[in-house]
Amino acid sequence: MHFEHTEEQRLIRDMVRSFAEKEVAPSAAERDEEERFDRQLMFDRLAELGLTGIVFPEEYGGAGAEYISYAIAVEELSRVCASTGVTLSAHLSLGANPIYLYGTEDQKQIFLAPLARGEKMGAFGLTEPMAGSDAGGTKTTAVPDGGDWIVNGSKVFITNAGEADTYIVFARTDREAEKHHGISAFIIEKGTPGFTFGKKEKKMGIRSSPTMELVFENCRVPAANLLGGEGNGFKVAMKTLDGGRIGVAAQALGIAQGALDAALAYARERMQFGSPICRFQGVQFQLADMATQIEAARLMVYQAAWRASNGMSYSQYSAMAKLMASETAMRVTTQAVQVFGGYGYTRDFPVERMMRDAKITEIYEGTSEIQRLVIGSALTR
Amino acid sequence: MKILLVAEYRDGKLLGSVNELIAFAGKMGAESAMFLVGSDSALPAYAGTLYLADAAACGEFNPDVHKQLLLDVVAREQPEMIVFSHSSYGWDLAPRIACALKAAQVSEVVDVEGDALIVPVCNAKLRRTVKPKTGQTVVTLQAGAFGLADAPVGSPTVEKVAAAGTGKLEFGGYEAAEQGGVDLTKAEVIVSAGRGIGKPENVAMIAALAKALKGEYGASRPVVDSGWVEHKRQVGTTGQSVAPKLYLACGISGAIQHLAGMKKSEFIVAINTDKDAPIGDVADVLVVADLKQFVPMLTEKIQAL
Amino acid sequence: MKILVCIKQVPDMESKFKVAASGTWYDTADLAWRMNEYDEYAVEQAVQLKEQVGDADLTVLCIGGEQVKETMKKALAMGCDRGVHIADDKSAEKEPYQIAGIIAEFARDKGFDLIFTGMQSQDRGSAQVGVLVAELLAIPSISTIVQFTFAGGRIETKRELEGGVKAIVRTSTPALVTCQLGLNTPRYPTLPNIMKAKKKELVSLPVTDLLKVEARQETAKLFFPEKKGGGLVLEGDVGPLADRLIQILKEKTGVLA
Questions:
Q1: Are residues B130 and B35 in the same domain?
Q2: How do residues B253-294 score in pLDDT, each as one tens digit?
Q3: Which SS3 state, helix, strand or coil, does residue C22 take?
Q4: What is the mean pLDDT of residues B229-257?
Q5: Where are the beta strands (DSSP E) in chain C?
Q6: Domain residues for B50?
Q7: Chain A residues in contact with chain B using a Cβ-Cβ cutoff of 8 Å
Q8: Tens digit of pLDDT for each residue in B65-99?
Q9: Is there a domain that residue A1 lies in?
Q10: What are phi and psi for residue B235, nearest 5 degrees?
Q11: Which of the residues B37, B231, B290, C16 has an alpha carbon 20 to 30 A from that of A7?
């Protein structure tokens, strides 16, 4: 057992960090303020760096790296801009990965390869107004019609929506079946007649990442776009989310690290009572707790990623990593604001944004409560 | 001890760094001579022998020829030390000389301590004491490390030298500094305006001082928020982080957001009416004055130099 | 065309440095290491030249312990064809003339048309090695370049002088140039290229085969400069104040030179 990154992983971290610091960080506060997504910076550039298909094999346009490298990339982007982190994570883990996991060879060539190369951007539509954590409660329907499927319904809180080109959408194909069994997954492309976007959410955090509603009104989807077979949608969704949780966990880890770095730099500089505040034990204890929690979360995130890359079961591990990392991010960013005091509450310093960004990691891709359910049921099975 | 000073000449002018070479010789208590590829119409104020080669004849930038000229002078003078400025001219020519003389070269000297030289390491975070092991040593001096309290006086005894031959490098002339696009992070001198300038009309006064110092002007956030100065000139956490050689803060109190963006500057001068303003904590020099009177006066005096 | 680019691995300059037990260098434990910033410009320019001429072979050279191979991999991922690692655990103790001697010894008789180096290292900062290598090889060198073009065996560069002025300098190959910040925008090593770099040739040579010169200087001591004390406070009439400040600027900074 060893805890060292490989040379390749260190090079990847170095590359993503310098890109993130030099190019993503300078506009992070402004994009947050203006709720502006910058596709060129937040996606096209990632494609040029080979990040949009990190984990997929070269024959599908990927780079053939493993999940730890993916986690490192999301972590480093999120360290300076959580919105850019989630753009990559939603695209790769949620938009592209289900096609890699369940797609036919044709589907991989047609849909996965352009996603992996970053020519197209991916998104994932599972959540509905009345079906959040309860995916089995999906109300969107797909009805067969002359070899095609007619999709009706809507999806809410969809990350990358509007910007993404390729969407994985879940719809009920069998009303009679027991609730989890009658759902199927479809690959639906932007521009398909009957597929439109609803309102754009005004969010607390990750404001530079677009979140919108997907609306399907008699949207005709070719049979060839059914993903993973009829009635297998729930399985596709759950397996996808297992991987997605590594992305969100890495995002949370990055946010937490960014907040610690900012707090540490500030504590070294901020003078009170004639000495830098980092000399005060009260502040040191806070910083020590922050760093310790982050390190624990990091080990869990990398372990889940390592299991995923080595063909081992990781559902429970990614749930634990996501739970740990997201709650760590929330705690650490809150403490970071506290270290900054009044300045931390203003938008002159990044910790205010990081605290707002952290909250979503406890909610999306399964709330902390759902993670505990996943872990608990695995333990007591 | 005998040292040979290598002065610089560019575009028809003797460079002012010659005074630092003279100051260094003084500090070493050494006998000195000077070498210059320049012109007899621009001689340094220096009481000693000046070996002068004509720049018009052998080129202002022609390392191969300058090397040969200088080696000839070294052969005549037999100095124990050959001293350059750590400048684009000095760091280019010094290694060529050191290599030819089989001498140690010590770069960017900031101080001397007996027979040892002190140089910066890791962006000046650390210092290193260096001992040459060769009989002759080549050194380059950090700009500003050896200042003179008073301008040197005297006129040199000129000994003309000339060289035969050409070099392998072809000099194609100078290109003036680019005008236009502001990039504070690349400026060597920044003069920044704070709330203390009072009104937008006073930005011109700050810009004029910046120009006199061949630098750029910047501003603190309140000045930018008021629309007096464009955002790309803002220094601080929501603007640029800068580390110029000289940062002049005019009427800036020193809010932490501003300090975070400029405190890595090499030398900081604050001009403020408030002696207790926090900018004083990071400033090397705090001038307690009304900047509306002081800044124009300073600008005028610098222009007159 | 044969191109050589020489790089150095240095600590991240934001690191908290400590003086090593030897007292003559910094403690290398717990530092983050990266490619010397000036060398990144050198690598980028070398790769651009290789892309321009097409038929070129680009070697990256680095002196140091086993750990410098990681920085060499970055250069390979940026586009260098092969790596030559000169294995030397004590490279930090070597002075610029010895380093230049090692590189020149390697490069002699290899027929490199162009050699790129950074203008200085961020840690030692002597700004000597590049020019010394050229002198030892008896080829022309141009230092501190901020622009580079190559055509028909001739190179044209712009050297950066003080105050933003540039000097245009030309020469013929074989030649060496030392690269200054701003010469170009170094590319990021893309992820697929990082993966491919693993398969490129990287040979190690023992430094003892190439070190033929003696040190000409030694470090007696490494230390931290004294912290800035409280700043100087000047008060009085504006005329004398301005004179006093000008005097201080002349003595303490190079900006009025």
A1: yes
A2: 888 888 888 988 889 999 998 888 888 888 999 999 999 899
A3: coil
A4: 88
A5: 2-7, 9-11, 33-35, 57-64, 82-87, 114-118, 141-151, 154-160, 166-172, 175-179, 202-206, 217-223, 232-235
A6: 2-161
A7: 29, 269-271, 343, 348-349
A8: 999 999 999 999 999 999 999 999 999 999 999 99
A9: no
A10: -105, 130
A11: C16
Label residues C197-226 b or e (16+ Cβ within 10 Å = b): beebebeebebeebbebebbbebbbbeeee
Q: How many domains does chain A have?
A: 3
Alpha helices, DSSP H only, in A117-272? 233-269
Question: Among this protein's residues, is A33 annotated catalytic?
Answer: no
CA C195 to chain B, closest CA, distance in angstroms equals 32
For A215, counting Cβ atoms within 10 Å of its Cβ (0-12 exposed, 13-18 middle, 19+ buried), the class is middle
Residue B267 sits in a domain of what CATH number?
3.40.50.1220
Parse chain C into domains and list their residue ranges: 2-209
Question: In angstroms, what separates the C-alpha of A77 from chain C's closest C-alpha?
Answer: 15
Residues C104-161: tens digit of each pLDDT: 999 999 999 999 999 999 999 999 999 999 999 999 999 999 999 999 999 999 999 8
Partners of chain C (3+ Cβ pairs below 8 A): A, B
> CATH number for the domain including A304?
1.20.140.10
* pLDDT > 90: percent of chain A: 89
Position C228 scores a pLDDT of 58
Per-residue pLDDT, averaged over A365-381, amounts to 93
CATH number, domain with residue A135:
2.40.110.10
Tell if the CB–CB gap between A63 and C77 is shorter than 8 Å.
no
Residue from B93, B99, B94, B146 nearest B118 by CA: B146
DSSP β-bridge partners for residue B193? B219, B250
User: Are the Cβ atoms of A54 and C194 closer than 8 angstroms?
Assistant: no
- Are residues A106 and A43 part of one domain? yes
Q: Complex ipTM, two decimals?
A: 0.91
Mark yes or no for CB contact B237/A348 under 8 Å. Answer: yes
B285 occurs within a structural domain = yes
The answer to whether C107 and C129 have CB atoms below 8 angstroms apart is no
- CATH topology for C2-209? Rossmann fold (3.40.50)
**Residue C2 sits at the chain A interface (C-beta within 8 Å):** no
* CATH code for position A35: 1.10.540.10
Same domain (yes/no): A68, A143: no
Q: Indicate if A350 and A319 belong to the same structural domain.
A: yes
Domain end among A121, A145, A169: A121
Measured CA to CA, the distance from residue A233 to residue C233 in angstroms comes to 74
Q: Which of C8, C122, C126, C147 should be substituted to probe chain B, the one whose Cβ sees the most B Cβ atoms within 10 Å?
A: C126
**Which residues pair with residue B105 across a beta bridge?**
B138
What gap in Å lies between CA A117 and CA A109, rounded to an integer?
A: 11
Contacts of A270 in chain B (CB under 8 A): 256
Under a CB-based contact definition with an 8 Å cutoff, are residues C66 and C42 in contact? no
Q: What is the DSSP secondary-structure string of A52-65?
A: TTTTS-GGGT----
**Shared-domain flag, residues A275 and A375:** yes
Same structural domain, B229 and B285: yes
| pLDDT score for B103 | 97
Q: Please give the residue range of the domain that contains residue A328.
A: 235-380
Task: Give the rounded distance of the alpha carbon of A90 from its chain centre.
Answer: 5
> The whole model's pTM is what?
0.87
Spatial separation of the C-alpha atoms in residues A53 and A113, rounded to whole Å: 8
Helix pair angle (A351-361, A82-89), 10° resolution: 30
